[in-house]
Prior knowledge:
By secondary structure, the chain is α+β, with helices and mostly antiparallel strands. 31% of the residues lie in helices and 40% in strands.
Amino acid sequence: MERASTRRLGSGAEQLAFRYLRERGLKPVARNFRTRRGEIDLIMLDGACLTFVEVRYRARNSVADAMLTVDARKQQKLIYTASLFLSMHPCYRSHTCRFDVVGVDGDHRGEISIDWLQDAFRPSV
């Protein structure tokens, strides 16, 4: 049961992030792009920039806030998965790309805060 409620919270956080980004002018390209080695929650266009978005949810009483939970290992998975997306969708290959993190932090009263960190990390060359 705990896994189902965690999945439901994550899905709800993704929906909140999706609406938040749409309200700020981003256009949806894909949601929950999955490969055997990783998943990208949201892929959106911010003007001509293809944006790969990792959505993180944390309850207010968590040790770290949501924005700080995308470590180097997770970044590498996202970068690899983004490269697969680009190889499967050549129409986006010429776009500038960036990796964003949207942190959704909530508390037991249902109050939510959303933080959007644009260009949160970059692939090492």
